[in-house]
Amino acid sequence: MSSPNILISGSGIAGSAFAFWLLRAFKHARITIVERAPELRLTGSSVDIRSSAVDIIKRMGVEPAIRAASTNEEGVSWVNSSGKAFATMRATGRTDVQSITSEYEIFRGTLAKILIQPSMDKVQLVFDEYVDTYQELADGVEVTFAKGRPAEKFDLLVAADGLGSRIRGQMLGKPSRDQIHDEGVHVAYFTVKKDLLNGSKLAKWYNAPGGRVVFLRPDPAGQTRGHFMSVTKANDLAGKKRLNDTIAQGNEAYMDLLEKDFADAGWQASQLLAEMRTSTDFYCSLFGQVRSPKLHSTSGRVVLLGDAGYATPGIGTSLATIGGYVLAGEILREPTNLSLALQRYEQLMMPFVKSHQGDDNAMQIMNPQSRWGIACRNAVFTVVMGLKIDRVAMRAAALLGFSEKKLDMPDYAWPEEAQDEVVMVAAAAK
């Protein structure tokens, strides 16, 4: 298969990374990317790059571009109701052991653009379209589209269509919601067109009782990235349902809910609520893990990639980048046996993903529900970070070799000619 014909559903980080590496593996690959949005999504929250994804962006030649587009966040300060910081956790300055603030803090849309840029003139990118249904055949997969694009047959359908993947639901024969593990965390994101941090490059985190969080992050454009976070108790099924149902009703309904829930939260909540109403990029999302029982169809013609297969808050961007690399690499290893290639992809990714999905209680621990719980957490943070115990522990971990978990990736035999060409394109895109 010197020129595979592949459809990618989704032009985000996972789909873009996969397209990059597939073009390195097969210079004449035919790649179609369908994107539900009318154009590339250049907005979005801050994401980061960790673990084996750091090695991958270096191999792609895009690390300098990513560093240049960083949000310049230096760390996170926790503040009280008067805005006074009582604890600060700074970035480590390392890529092997990172704190809450990564060495590669970058806005999601900016990262997606950097990753897709080297492939833009080599793929067919179709906006305002998405996969409706598909039918697997002996020699491919027949795909029908929702917005009128003619049905077409491909060698492989790659579902990179996110947390609520329609393709995942069809592949498993169950509603896509069934594979989402609700962590009890819901977040609203939006840009404030003024600097609420007064020039500081430290993000600010404020907790109010009831699992309410106001979080401000720096924006190098002189703006502020605002977040309202609602953290429900692990066993509060009614609370989770209330938030999920409101998200399903759309942005206006969720903003109404936030105005009610955060009216008396304190600190900058009132100002942020007012700014929220004038923002142009508001969106809200569930923090959820996708725990799919498998990553590909039995016939080997449909595969899940990135959040569609293994969304994991905190490391999801890195998993998407790693997944794109591994999937393309395994197809390179088995170009005439897609079924075997997808099996090997799943065998590599599944254990690694599960090792990051074992414990989802961190957000509940970090964001107590009661005033007493917040006071206790604040006291612990004040001591630990005031004495720099956190930084000492991270340095010690690095010295002892306890770096972030990495995937033991095969050494794929990427064709040198294609490698040189793609790296040149990436360099030109900086």
UniProtKB/TrEMBL annotation:
Keywords: FAD, Flavoprotein, Oxidoreductase. One of its GO terms (molecular function) is oxidoreductase activity. It holds the Pfam family FAD_binding_3. PANTHER family: MONOOXYGENASE, OXIDOREDUCTASE-RELATED. The keyword Flavoprotein applies. This is FAD-binding domain-containing protein. InterPro entries: FAD-bd, FAD/NAD-bd_sf, FAD_aromatic-hydroxylase. It comes from the Eukaryota. Residues 6-309 form the FAD-binding domain.
